[in-house]
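Agenda item 2: ribose-5-phosphate complex prediction
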Amino acid sequence: MPLLISALPGNEALAEGLARHLDAEVVPLELRSFPDGELYIRHLGEIDGRDLAIVCTLDRPNEKLIGAYLASASARELGTRRIGLIAPYLSYMRQDKRFKPGEAISSRHVANLLSSAFDWVVTVDPHLHRYKNLREIYTVPTQTANAAPLLSKWIGENVRQPVIIGPDSESQQWVAAVAVASGAPYTVMEKTRRGDRDVEITFRDIGSITGRTPVLVDDIISTGRTMAQAARALKKHGSSATTCLAIHGVFAGDAYELLAAEGATIVTCNTIQHPSNRIDLTDRIAEAVAAVREGVESNARR
Ligand code: R5P
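Presented output:
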């Protein structure tokens, strides 16, 4: 029987695209807030005995997490067979260590919550810094779609003589993958973060941009401070127009305006809906969904 797909608000276009790729059926989900902010959820279709994937990207996550949880818990109560979560942007991944006594390692607790609610999780390039993979914190099968090949394709089609630049050492994993697939050189800058909106970027490898077009690549643009400072550092060394390419455009607060004020061309993937989305990852996400479901079924047959 075909997979059923339901979208939390804002994820409808991706859910439709995934349904086309996966020969799945979309089941509408009614979700609204009561006047006091509590959520009302209703599955508008026959889901008993079926497999269901819930699409809910997790930027601005606090309300979305409870929405995804309620959608899953209610589907299970209504007799759904297996329930997966498709969260193209998986938030709460950056707090992966207790930096100060008493701090919550939120990545673990959110992973526990989602592992308790879903049978599998699919995402796109999660922010893995101190964790090697999602298996370290998720107890259910997970599958990651990688954006690097499509970032490279975009660069190949839009930038002449590129050099790929990461704004900090954490970005090296994405920058290296994109550079290898593009056949372009790469380098990374040095970042010191003093606060949520206070970062300093140092760029020493100035020779790397000579005669080339710099393309800044990072996994996430959140406050935009990292990319803005990186673009500023490039300008200081004579680079005019900078392209800022990110997988997940969270754009908290004034992030987009701040980056645009640097004269940057801003390009993101459709893991979070935004006017800067230029790179469509629907087919990569669909492949990841097919792979994780196959794994779950073959484990169940053993
Ligand atoms: C963290 O290391 C990530 O890779 C990004 O560099 C970071 O999340 C960007 O944050 P912001 O846009 O707030 O500077």
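Discussion summary: The pocket of ribose-5-phosphate is lined by residues 168, 170-171, 199, 218-226 (CB under 6 Å).
Owner for follow-up: CH.
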